[in-house]
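Re-run requested by the PI after the first attempt was lost when the workstation crashed. Everything re-entered from the original request form. Ligand of interest: guanosine-5'-diphosphate.
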Amino acid sequence: MFHLVSSLYTQYTKREQYNVLILGLDNAGKTTFLEHIKLLYSTPDSNNKQSTQDTTSIIKSKRILPTVGQNTTTIKYHSDENIVYNNINLKFWDLGGQKSLRNMWSRYYSSCHGIIFIIDSTDTDRFQECYETLMTLSHDENWGDENNNYESTVNVPILMMANKQDLPQAIDLVTLKTGVFIQVVSELEATDSKLLPVSVLENQGIKESLEWLISRLVYNKANKQPEYR
Ligand SMILES: Nc1nc2c(ncn2[C@@H]2O[C@H](COP(=O)(O)OP(=O)(O)O)[C@@H](O)[C@H]2O)c(=O)[nH]1
Ligand SMILES: [Mg+2]
């Protein structure tokens, strides 16, 4: 009885926290996304109040260097339209995307609740490498646990972002879905994942993407329990 009461108390007084990995090849826009998220959601009151123009020009004036190691940030998610999700913390991990750093990613899989995989929609030369990276990630042996019978298939939602859609040479969503990525996108979209068009620099699609991800993190709660902070 005490345990029941104390766990109910914890549930009502603490915030749910979900860990989200930001992955993708180097130069995809991972750090730019994280920096933009920080500006948009750093304090509950500033949420979405800064205009798109403001945050985009701040981001553009920052010098974002290639990531070595990791950047993390925790935001208190807040949405005026969807108050159901207002008591949630998201902790983002931006891990380096260079080839030498990618084999470190799997160390984080067991403690993550969701993945944002960023694709540079203009980098056609590396689409094949990007596809293979996504395939390797979604079938990594570290996904196996008692809940999915030790099958090495990803058991958390993956939000795939087709980034840099502001650039004229960006490949559009339909072409991406039917081209090199067809197998991985259809395989993942059959589970709990989605490919969305964004520009993390211009703040296009960030809000919609986060809303989708949060709804899936909450849906997947029984499978991957959030932390309480
Ligand atoms: N035009 C455009 N450039 C972007 C966008 N996102 C990132 N970039 C640029 O792509 C480069 C790599 O971004 P960065 O965030 O460092 O990539 P990371 O290696 O994945 O962390 C930088 O020059 C960014 O300004 C976007 O949505 N549109
Ligand atoms: Mg980076």
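Saved to the shared folder this time. The first strand starts at residue 16 and ends at 23.
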